[in-house]
Amino acid sequence: MLLSLSNRARDYAWGSTTLLAGLEGREPSSVPEAEVWFGDHPGDPADLADGRTLDEVTGGSLPYLLKLLAAADPLSIQVHPTREQAREGFARERGLAASDPSRNYRDDNHKPELIVPLSERFEALGGLRPLADTLRLLESFPESAGVNALRSRLQAGEPADALRETIGWLLSGEAQTEVDQIIAGLRVAESEEFAETLRGVRAIAERNPGDPGVVVALLMNFLVLRRGEAIFLRAGLLHAYVSGLGVEIMAASDNVLRGGLTPKHIDVDELLAVVDPSPGDVPVQRPSDDAEVVQYDVPVPDFALQRVRVDGERRIEVTGPTIALVTAGTVTVASDSGDALDVPVGGAAFASPDEGAIMLRGQGEVFVAEPGRN
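Above: the chain sequence. Below: its structure as tokens.
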């Protein structure tokens, strides 16, 4: 069985009026368009052509959620729980209404995720930078009590412990004077080595004046991805998308613990319980520009994602329920059962688990999501 999928863009404030419109070849939107969900998550199941939603077909059993994501402004700094943490947190909050803004856990699942840019430039914050590098970055700041306090805290104890304590201090509300001094220093700091980071975090500060999350962002790796590259973000890894258009896939969950750059609820204690403060780099997957099929590295069994460039006809073997999202060109998706759908750019097709393969015809680019095979 093959079904066409569509959905309305979610109008989160950080969304773009132009990125999704440009992908789909239409005029800019009058309101921000942030995410389009292709899945059966109860938060926003995809629409079918017959008026039903995908969860009515699957029973809400998809282990993954596929999205188009368009960011004009930074998303909140955030972290996602492990499956065990999610189960415990969801059970603890069972008495809270689903709409309660203080609720941290919307479901009992973990939320590892992968992002693949569609824009030529995609900026993100991912993981905590090695401490020696951050201390070197702070050398470019003018001396102030706030910078000295930050430097002192980062050097107090083992790196992971120092980072956890520092994040808690910054978000506690007790360090606003120091935060303001550090942000003032950010405006004039100069470093050839960290020029990209300083430019990026300055732009974040302009959009989030006085927010302690700006200083948390200074502790994180600032990443610039190119089209088709990818990063995998495991549970516990602090991150935030800053700007750009991409395809995002994750375990089917909506659990988010926030750590700044947002007016939404921030539970500092729960964030610190979930975050992995171990510093280090985030590996960037850089496939060959001329690869016709790219299988992205995903070390969890919830989902798999491949990018397929179609020029004529290509058969893709699949395992389990599959979503084919068209991101360029003119593509028809067909199944072994004889169904065929002309899928517009920005639209998707769902293949039920009884389909062992899909056929892609035409010229264009398709992202194929399915359950993981590892």
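Residues 159-171 form the longest helix (13 residues).
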